[in-house]
Amino acid sequence: xxxxxxxxxxxxxxxxxxxxxxxxxxxxxxxxxxxxxxxxxxxxxxxxxxxxxxxxxxxxxxxxxxxxxxxxxxxxxxxxxxxxxxxxxxxxxxxxxxxxxxxxxxxxxxxxxxxxxxxxxxxxxxxxxxxxxxxxxxxxxxxxxxxxxxxxxxxxxxxxxxxxxxxxxxxxxxxxxxxxxxxxxxxxxxxxxxxxxxxxxxxxxxxxxxxxxxxxxxxxxxxxxxxxxxxxxxxxxxxxxxxxxxxxxxxxxxxxxxxxxxxxxxxxxxxxxxxxxxxxxxxxxxxxxxxxxxxxxxxxxxxxxxxxxxxxxxxxxxxxxxxxx
Length: 325
What we know:
Elements: E1 5-10, H1 14-23, E2 29-35, H2 39-49, E3 53-55, H3 58-63, E4 69-72, H4 79-88, E5 92-96, H5 103-115, E6 120-123, H6 130-140, E7 147-155, H7 175-191, E8 196-203, E9 209-217, E10 223-229, E11 238-242, E12 245-249, E13 258-263, E14 266-271, H8 280-291, H9 302-319
Parallel strand pairs: 1-2, 1-4, 2-3, 4-5, 5-6, 7-10
Antiparallel strand pairs: 7-11, 8-9, 9-10, 11-12, 12-13, 13-14
Helix pairs in contact: 4-5, 5-9, 7-9
Domain Gfo/Idh/MocA-like oxidoreductase N-terminal: 5-123
Organism: Rhodohalobacter mucosus
GO molecular function: nucleotide binding; oxidoreductase activity
């Protein structure tokens, strides 16, 4: 592989525009191609971000011999099928979160990537944000002592109609999979897999959750209190409490640029800016892996994705949220 990674983008929607912006910040990557089922949309996106080519079908993008890795930015329910298609055509994949709708889908994607010796990673950009890396460092150093509990929320008021992606069951709607995944992931990062999961939700007429509240318990007695909602603006902060103090990831915690450490009643504020829109760090992780011929990231391995979706599957069972009908 050349020293320049050639990217493709599958699904040029809103999140893909942020990703493409940050792709231009990397001196080790170029946007080789983009694909949309609407050729005009692909052409416009290509013109804006100066990709070498564009396509009116996803299959044509995956068939492009010059592309090294494809970023999949479509709605959740299409991730598995599209990831498998790209892998089967010999392309490495970075797939937006959640990478699959359930653990069964995830496992089929992992098996395909491993069988073909191709790189695969879930697009959990939070893991690579500088503030998140600092949080991990502080926890590894026992900066606030024994971890006792955490609180994290993610909420905004959506005026989108029932046909929008946020509320449409056929598009994987609901607050849990769209934004609840972030507090759940942070709890996984800090505490590992929960020993006990309790959850309650408020459901919409379309059958997805507009509000979800979760309580996780751990074998050592630690607790995590987590919320997600489309019903109201919430602080969207995360605070981890330990035996000697606390660490707060300021809003929005999943790509925070400010951490507050409180010890013995004294606060220390850390400014930790990210580059671009924040996707740059995730892009560089993938570039590093590909240039070093790795098939998965040691910082965000496939097992982490499986652990995350397994917890989300359990929460869905608790709130009777099914996407099978």
